[in-house]
Amino acid sequence: MAEKFDAIVVGAGPSGNAAAYTLAKAGLKVLQIERGEYPGSKNVQGAILYSDALERIIPDFRDDAPLERHIVEQQMWVLDDESYVGSTYRSADFNKPPYNRYTIIRAQFDKWFSKKVQDAGALLICETTVTDLLLDGNRVIGVQADREGGAIYADIVILADGVNSLLAKKAGFHPELDPKDVALAVKEIHFLPQETVQERFNISEDEGVVIEMVGKITKGMMGTGFLYTNKESITLGVGCMLSDFKYQKTTPYALLEQMKAHPAIKPLIAGGEMKEYAGHLIPEGGYKAIPKIYGDGWLMAGDAAMFVNAVHREGSNLAMTSGRLAAETVIALKLQGKPMNSANLSLYREKLDESFVMKDLKKYKEMPQILHKNPQFFTTYPELLNQAAHSMLTVDGVDKKTKEKEIRNNFIGKRSLFGLMGDAFKMWRAFE
Amino acid sequence: MKVENKLFQNRYKVDTGHPHISIKDPNLCQNDCQTLACTVCCPAGCYTEEGNGKIVLITDGCLECGTCRIICSEFRNVDWEYPRGGYGILFKFG
Questions:
Q1: B35 contacts in A (CB within 8 Å)?
Q2: Number of helices and strands in chain A (H, E)
Q3: Which of its termini does chain B have fewer beta carbons within 10 Å around, N or C?
């Protein structure tokens, strides 16, 4: 008879680690399975860590977690080919501990988180791919792993297997992902001396800067760019919806090269040594694209469940929170001696609905559709905004009233008055 | 910078002789597919078109993102599995 566990967690990313840690802490017999050589070796993120979500799991994480820099400044750039219009928010308040956000390097961070999970008592096996869910009718009773005697049984399987979540598809729980619901992001990490990073971004030893970008860098596709400062490296990348990528001729790596060559970005990474290139899908379909997240004998958390707030570039915090709530659901049912069936596991959905995870996703539920149908937010507006700034900031003897008129005519010419009003209304509705 | 040079910075443990992705029916790519989106969208440039519409797939540089599987939405012509445990891309930084 094969060994049976209280719970099997598939995946050792933020949601899987949060779930396995919470379960193990409560004394459950937990097996966690990771296909990478070590936790983190298959995982890709920007990466920003949001303290609150982790604090609720490991309150003293700051004592030994590998953190790069705490964020003191957030910039938003709207780019044209040669220029950008930007806004900056920097606050001394962000310099007061406990810090709210940090840049992290995921391979290191995931290893650390996984150590905590193992210390809490969970059994981790790496270099093992779960190939199928074991079903009894429609009920998940365990997993099949790609090693000898690979059938392993548990009362509940938590699927924290990331954006692709092949297991839910093979079991018939989910259809294939729609290209309009996922973004492809590519990124690089460039190493520079710590002092150089600090000088270029006007920051001191542990301070960090985040730059989010929208506009010409995505060549008309729905997407964004980003640049984050680590201790002695800079991470930068660009991501666009797969449905847009499909019908144009720019490769993801060419897009990244063009972004790196932008006159505002190039000097920030100059002289750096590129040490890794990564590509990853981000589930950005939002609330309306959330698939089935529980059933008889299984729960799903993190990217696999489409828990990403694309508007605010948040994902890992939704992953950790959903992983924790999945575990708390299992613990509650276990204490009450209730079976792990679909009806009882609906408690997970209730917990999610009460949390920021579902509340935030619900708030922006119209956003993906609006942006898909209105590419002008990624093309025309960045261009118009930059032209307006250029005109107003070029002192050439033309009076300001004439310039204002030119800018107004330029906007109306490109978008029409009704178009402008309609766009404002759509944005107001989407953010309301 | 070419994609080959980017991938050269990465660490892989290639499962020689066991590619984790395959094209189900190569004739579909050659005769029916108009977009050949895999050749543009794969961030590792694993798919190349040989000039006559024939697609060559070499998975050694694969980043395991899933793009090719999802983008082939008309034909569902990509057989996509994760590499065997321990094989494939090994992100140093992620």
A1: 246-247
A2: 15, 17
A3: N
